[in-house]
Amino acid sequence: MGADSATHPRAKGKSPALHIAMASSEISPFAKTGGLGDVLGSLPQALERLGVKISLIMPAYRSVLKGNFPTEDTGIRFSVPVSNKMEKGSVLKGKVGRSIPVYFIRAAKYYDRENLYYTSEGDYPDNAERFVFFSRAVLEVLRSDPPDILHAHDWQTALSIVFLKAQPEQYPELANTKAFFTVHNLGYQGVFWNLDWHLLNLDWRFFSSQYLEFFNKINFLKGGAVFADRVTTVSPTYAEEMTTAEYGFGLEGVFREKAKDLIGILNGVDYQVWNPESDSNIAHTYSVDDLAGKTVCKAELQKAFGLQENPSVPLIGMVTRLTSQKGCDLVAMAMNALMERDIQFVLLGDGEKYYTELFEGMTKKYPGKISVQMAFDELKVHKIIAGADFILVPSRYEPCGLTQMYGLRYGTVPVVRITGGLKDTIEEFNPEAGRGNGFLFSSSEPTDLMAVIDRALECYQRKDLWTTLIKNGMKENFSWEKSARLYKEMYQKLAQAADK
Ligand code: ADP
Ligand code: GLC
Fold this sequence. Notes:
six-stranded parallel β-sheet; Rossmann fold; binds adenosine-5'-diphosphate; 21% strand; binds alpha-D-glucopyranose; globular; nine-stranded mixed β-sheet; alpha/beta
């Protein structure tokens, strides 16, 4: 598949803009449960600024239908095979950036639901079917305007690559479309029991360890990784970690085989959204040259979380999905020791009931010192990122992580575990040299976490050092531009490659 480079239209002369179609389950502001939504909300626009033609495809979730986003009906109606039935859908169209079309796949029975993936009862039982349907639908949208590259993100869209590559006879219009896959988190692979295989309408030979089979189950993410022409992840360190037993979640062998082509491109920050100089969600704006507003933000945060309004007590903030990935258990284990220090701790969390109850219990034990709010609330995230002194990210693993980069821009010092993208963005502060932007620890032991927190608190007391440290962070630049250029280069090479 793919044109020979010598005869490829891009090989000489003026070529049309590269056309990339991105498929994702989350795109901010339409739907988001974590960083995937942020990335898809900002990377496409950074690419558009570099002259890449982009189109986006996502499900028409209830948040899209009810969210007052201007959309129009494209008139496209389709049906795709799911098991032995033909399931129907239609396509709405919206717009982001200058002129990026966003195609929303509408199928009420799959996506017009309260949440994206689960309720308090657990995962939706038909998640396999929902994302089989979505992946087939993506290819239907592409038929009428075939892109150079289909760029799929994470397990929910991985099957669009599998269907494209394993069943080319079903998609003749897409014969020259290459497949690019980005892994955002190996902890979520879309693994389903083998009795769901009929949903995929794929030959049984693909249910083998070379392809989608994984411990006798079906693994969507593995399929995407195996069939894609290029695989990337979201930080250079995570690209290395994915090939190890410690971080590979059972797929390390697959990524080891791909290691020489497996590239980690660091996520960026959308500084239009995350900028203390212009952020309308915070109590007072501020900048690296005038930090006075940050004190106002701290007071507002303390008030919002019912803590004493005290400018001098160190305030540690944490904003996270409540899962073991994020080191929630580690924080819980260290909490008694942490509460012996003269600090305040605020947590905004959303997720597992076990952690919700654990942290709510701690609030009762240490009233006035720790305050937690259990919600998915983007406004409050801004308030914590601006008002806290430290942002704690003690993740067991972290493919990239965005909150530490948000913290940097707001002069809120990251305290992070050395892993994945945290390692690639945070450098330990060296008081003698006045260099570095945060504090790091390596093991997942409470004693190590306390040691780094004590180091951070000591620095907080030395106002001259402290100011140097927060200004170092605020001056960092993790904008998308550099990373978008790397994606563009990869797209260009892939589009021109004779084959893989
Ligand atoms: P992950 O995608 O693994 O959750 P990231 O650091 O990449 O981690 O991105 C997390 C994103 O989700 C950030 O935009 C963060 O602000 C947001 N977020 C996390 N927890 C919450 C919450 N409780 N309410 C609102 N937004 C949240
Ligand atoms: C995932 C990862 C996170 C990353 C985000 C966006 O959810 O857990 O580290 O920043 O995807 O790529």
